[in-house]
């Protein structure tokens, strides 16, 4: 199993943002993480991207937004090693994790950006090919600016991204290193309970009773507060935990299925393939070979 590199970037409080154009034969940087957030704009290129416990294909006119300390890795398709004319290019922007943190977390004008950065802790992929906000043009202006002008352009980029729906949230909910901030003590209480017991058999009626609600009202309440059904959330958490165990390499598939709370190996395989697009065995081989 490969090691994860802790990259140290030359970003400080005095210079919290770094932006540059890139033009590579292919992506070569290994599986790594850093405390800074990162924007990777793919103007031209295609391949596979990994972040946390998830993976996704990428292609022209797409953008990754990656959170602080989120392990990630990009690789181009195999034909990049065979065809000399293939290259990958675009813009990379890295910024300090506490960049404008007080303003983002306290001022209502920045609520959308603050929520965007929270969601980036799981890794986001955006498609820019059909967007109407001239986001590619904004991105390409940022490396050419300095000082306040660069900061203004960067804030315009973040604001524009708040109006786009990500094509994919790359990592599973269970991988999220920063728990989502829920409004209301009741949903926080429920989520704390689920975080502790999601690998165990969980009965809807018991959780609804824990929240002092009937099952029908609880299901509606849970969907309104999380955007997911109760069962979907439990399955997502179990799949996320399974991905971590598959990365570890010490457990076999049957042991992982049991540890994560699935009814059987067959049920685990079905859920995992539906969630990730591949079987647990294929996922382990793919993530372990990079």
From TrEMBL:
InterPro entries according to UniProt: AraC-bd (IPR003313), Homeodomain-like_sf (IPR009057), HTH_AraC (IPR018060), HTH_AraC-typ_CS (IPR018062), RmlC-like_jellyroll (IPR014710), RmlC_Cupin_sf (IPR011051), Tscrpt_reg_AraC-type_HTH (IPR020449)
All residue ranges annotated as the HTH araC/xylS-type domain in the record: 188-286
Name of a matching Pfam family: HTH_18
Transmembrane segments: none
A GO term, aspect molecular function: DNA-binding transcription factor activity
Superkingdom field: Bacteria
Coiled-coil regions, chain positions: none
Keyword field contains Transcription regulation: yes
Name listed for the protein in its UniProt record: AraC family transcriptional regulator
